[in-house]
Amino acid sequence: MRITWWAALGVMLLGLPVRAQDEIRIGAVLPITGKESKIGGAYKQATELAVKEANNAGGVQVGAKKMKVNLVLLDDTSDAAKSAQLVEQLITQDKVHAIIGGYGSHLVQAQSVVPDRYGVPFLSGGAGATAIFGRSKWVFGTLSPVEHLAETQMAFLDDLVKQGKLKTPLTIALVTENTEHGNDYAKGVNDFIKSHPGYKIVVQEKFELNTTDYRPLLQRVAEAKTDLFLADSHLEDFIAMHRTYTQMGLKHQMLTHGARGSDTAARKALGPATDYIFASGWWSDLLPYPQVKEFNARYKAATGIEPQWYNAMGYETVRALLAAISKAGSTDPEKIRAALAGLKMEKSIAPGQVLSFTKTGQADLPFVVTQNKPGGKVDLVWPKDSKTGEPVAPIPAK
Amino acid sequence: MEKFVVVALNSLLTAGLYATMSYGLAVIYGVMRIINLAHAGLMMLAAYATWALNDRFGLDPFLSIVIVAPAFFLLGMGLYATVIRWLPRSSAGPSMQSLLLLFGVWLVLQNLAYAIWGGDTQSILTPYTMESIPIFGGRFGVPQILVFVVSILSLVGLNLVLRRTYLGKAIRAVTQNRDAAMLSGVNAGQIAAVAFGIGTAFAAMGGSMLSALYAFTPDFGRSFLLKAFCIIVLGGMESFTGVAVGALVLAFIENFASAYTAIPVSYQDAISFTLLVVVLVAAPGGLPGLWRLLDRRVVAR
After folding, report:
1. Cβ-based contacts of A215 with chain B (< 8 Å)
2. C-beta separation of A155 from A191 below 8 A
3. Quick check: B223 and A217 CB within 8 A?
4. Could you tell me the pTM of the whole model?
5. For A386, which DSSP code?
6. Which of A34, A38, A216 is nearest residue B120 as measured by Cβ atoms?
7. What are phi and psi of B140, to 5 degrees?
8. Residues B83 and B101 sit within 8 Å (Cβ to Cβ)
9. Could you say which DSSP state residue A62 is in?
């Protein structure tokens, strides 16, 4: 009988939160398994590293005291419905002070409706679709809009025209995946062209994800005989489409698949056919800032891998949230939200070095442009003040 | 004229690809009256097996069919013995149990692949992957031509087996009338096991070849399964020549619609599914059924 009482007392004591008021409870829902597991797993690694670093430094300065971060990280198995449900669970059961959103616009979109219901700050580092932002004052994101990705690429091409490497008028074949991402990309290109004479879209087509045959689409592109080929594709579609493109002997002065191009998997799948493709991204390890070089070394030492854009943005998202909590001086949700809205994080590893959010809650950081070079080399070619090599334009004939 | 020939040739190559990924589905439906929803998962698994053989031993994806297809034949037989044979028999059509069970098998295969290989995108790059051959002013990819050749060879081989061997005749007998076949001494259970093995081997052959064309993840195969389903409905569900013709019709419609109309290319799948609905409503027996109907009318006159 005595043992039973002691056991009950032990359970009660163990069950009690140990000075829960002295810790910052952060919830995160990521696709660690399932379709998005590759990048979801990278976000998990980066999120945990950022939290570990904060705790190793003694915690986050909140008002007069330093508070440790308690991260509750859940796997949504790449399922949108489950993703939203887990965010709700973190808020109602784990009583987190703030949420780190997942990866993938469709998953984050599902998650993003929940924080508004409970008034909890939500910061995502893995969704660039504009439709997610501006609907709730609680939702923030560190990835700049995909539209700006397209605008950056157009600005890069326009600069090549100014340098005399390309000559206007330039005709464009615009081919985008039939998703929010693809639509935002197409909008970005179209918006740029409206205010910049000298460019004309001759053929504009959409394609479904995992299309089985790209030849009908590329036949239309071939018939249009355009100068530029601008596409926005997922990795699998990029590989399948570019194989057909190469087999058909198509050639353009410049070619992009949006954010795709320098991926190791793509270069392995396509070989030298990826040379001179340019791609845009939210981040590059080639950025010449001292804090990026430091981050690259630190990340590699901690995980054994060279950081990619998703590692960097996952890491920076946590840093931004912790910076906002520190700035708020409190774990009160409204104060954290206000701090996020007014955040101006200097010495960020993100392009532009200052991380802040627009009125819609989405960051508006510049994109980088990289260009593949022969021999597996990649150069950062945009922004101009950060470039590691000269852009090659037009693509030389082989 | 040149454009017409190029589009026609491309349709032919696409048909080869479509037929290859549909044969396995037709074999299993013909004998067992079940729609193998795990077909996409088996193709995906075969793509990974082919990739592993290429990665480790440098084996060409087309040559690896010699290893992958027999291995998957055994896997199919094993799957039949452990899972499929317990399904309630239905001669009318696929039962809900079979659909749910095979969908479950697909999910298991998918998650198994995620557990083993993770979600990374994999692909196979051979010396001829990016190569093409100029024909009538168009350039056609070497891998697509190889897929077409294998598709024709497998159609001929399958028809030879079905017409010239006891096993083939038994499969056809069970396909046409299971009870009559059993009364004639055919062991329908054994034939079903072999048919499931053959169907799985064909799915594997499709997967091996697809791995030479596409990049893949454990989620691979979904869009191919939907196309294959349209093709076997169009082809009459149980005739392999019908499957080849169904693949040809679908490929020609898709390619010519894109080349000669203003229909957006993204409507390609919509064309497949509209065709599926039209065939199911107007000619449930598919193209062979339609052919038989027209033939009877001509004879009646």
Report:
1. 10, 14, 255
2. no
3. no
4. 0.86
5. G
6. A38
7. -120, 130
8. yes
9. E
pLDDT tens by residue, chain A, 398 residues:
455 555 555 544 444 444 456 899 999 999 998 888 888 999 999 999 999 999 999 999 999 899 999 999 999 999 999 999 999 999 999 999 999 999 988 899 999 999 999 999 999 999 988 889 999 999 999 999 988 999 999 999 999 999 999 999 999 999 999 988 899 999 999 999 999 999 999 999 999 888 888 999 999 999 999 999 999 998 899 999 999 999 999 999 999 999 988 888 899 999 999 999 999 999 999 999 999 999 999 999 999 999 999 999 999 999 999 999 999 999 999 999 999 999 999 999 999 999 999 999 999 899 999 999 999 999 999 998 889 999 999 999 87
How many Å apart are CA A320 and CA A323, to the nearest integer? Answer: 5
Dihedral, CA of residue A11, residue A16, residue A17 and residue A18, to nearest 10: -80
Q: Taking CB atoms and an 8 Å limit, are A247 and B227 in contact across chains?
A: no
The region that residue A239 occupies, defined by phi over 0 for left and psi between -120 and 50 for alpha, beta otherwise, is: alpha
Closest in A35, A244, A271 to B219, CB measured: A35
Specify whether the CB–CB gap between A202 and A224 falls below 8 A: yes
SS3 category, A362 = strand
Q: Name the H helices within A261-344.
A: 264-270, 290-303, 309-328, 333-341
The backbone torsions φ and ψ at residue B242, rounded to the nearest 5 degrees and listed phi first, read: -60, -40
Token pair 């590699």: residue: A300
Q: B142 to chain A: which residues are within 8 Å by CB?
A: 247
User: Which residues does residue A228 pair with via DSSP β-bridges, in sequence order?
Assistant: A172, A254
End-to-end CA distance of chain A: 86
Integer Cα distance of A363 and A146 in angstroms: 11
CB contact under 8 A, B258 and A240: no
Distances (CA, A) of B38 to A243, B34, B75, B101, B231: 28, 11, 13, 9, 17
Residues B198, B204: Cα–Cα separation, whole Å: 10
B227 touches chain A (CB under 8 A): yes
CA atoms of B224 and A367, how far apart (whole Å): 35
Contact A240 B7 (CB under 8 A): no
